[in-house]
Design goal:
With 126 residues, the protein is mostly helical. The chain has five helices and no strands. It has one domain. It is extended and about 60 Å long.
Length: 126
């Protein structure tokens, strides 16, 4: 059961990326682009309809809303475009991740936090 759940989560992750790609594809109809953009934005946004700290319901909305949104987009986007976007999403998932890029992002955040702390820290001079 755990392997099946992991496979479903991997498929869901791929489909969210494919939905984002479909929203940007020139062959996707405007109404499908709007739905795909809304679903991708909700799935990737840190802001939820019901916050995750609410017991059970916090994660339940992600387990219901995102798959239903993907199902809607799958019905609206032409199958050839969706297959192309899924293949592109799978290829992107196979690409190696950049450790240097992650280190640069972390260094940027640490630098920004240090600058903000320096700016907000009261000085010793009157």
């Amino acid at each position: 059961m755990l392997a099946r759940t992991k496979a479903w989560a991997g498929t869901l992750t791929r489909d969210v990326h494919a939905v984002w790609l479909a929203a940007r594809h020139p062959g996707t109809p405007w109404y499908a682009k709007a739905a795909a953009l809304a679903v991708a934005a909700y799935a990737l946004s840190p802001i939820d309809l019901i916050p995750d700290f609410v017991p059970v319901l916090g994660y339940l909305d992600d387990l219901v809303i995102v798959p239903l949104g993907i199902l809607l987009v799958r019905r609206l986007v032409p199958p050839a475009i969706l297959a192309e976007c899924r293949a592109e999403a799978e290829e992107a998932a196979r690409q190696p991740r950049s450790g240097l890029g992650a280190a640069l992002v972390v260094a940027l955040w640490v630098s920004a936090a240090a600058l903000l702390l320096w700016w907000l820290w009261p000085s010793a001079a009157p």
